[in-house]
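Late entry, evening session. Most of the bench is empty. Finally got around to the prediction I had been postponing all week. Sequence below, unchanged from the version circulated by S.P.
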Amino acid sequence: MGADELLDCAAADARSLLAAAGTRWDLPVPHCPEWDVAELVRHQGSIFAWMAAIVTGRQRVSRPGMAPAPASPADLPDWYLGNLDLALEVLGSADPESATWTFSSTGDQRVAWWQRRLAVEVGIHRFDVQHAVAVDGSQPAPLDGGVAAAGIGEFVIEFLPGLLAQAASTDLHGTLHLHATDGPAEWSINLDAGGVAEPRHANADTAIRGTRSDLLLWLTNRAPADSLEVFGRPELAASWKQLRR
């Protein structure tokens, strides 16, 4: 998925997030239990400004040192949209292959890393807010398939090894195969080798099949239990929640 497509999806998801948030600022966000909807919007708007500052200066920027978000929910929409527009302009005008600081665990120091991170982060948090405000059995929209595929790759390469190193469960072992049912995304992961992941088909102790959106939501502990097919060791899937980030 190219930079323009990622940023187009980020823009759409960011605006959908705000539209959903404006219906109930005070609702708790089940997938982010430390926040209500207003606080999630403050977080996401601050992330927009932080990413823009990093790519503008091409060096690390301290988030605590940046201007705080508005305290009043009435002031959040204009502030949030202003930061969104800034992030889209800065990240959209930069060469994806140009160098910048990132917090990549693999040493990827390219603007492309931030373009993907923006799309994945805001897509997941859009889902979180729509889930928080859902009424009458309505469901949040799934993530864009291309964004979800990018997010799966990001998660298993950038984040999973560090999360496994902190895990306490002995059930998180063996091999895991992720297989998307709606488009390209397939990963073989060796949990006993620290989470080494390869984008290929392979037999595994546990296999999990689902849409690209549901696979990413499962990896980040958001997918409903009945949205996936699990083959092999069900205890691995049951223990995954400890890796919440």
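Two things to note before I forget:
Residues 111-133 form the longest helix (23 residues).
The two ends are 24 Å apart (CA to CA).
Will write this up properly tomorrow.
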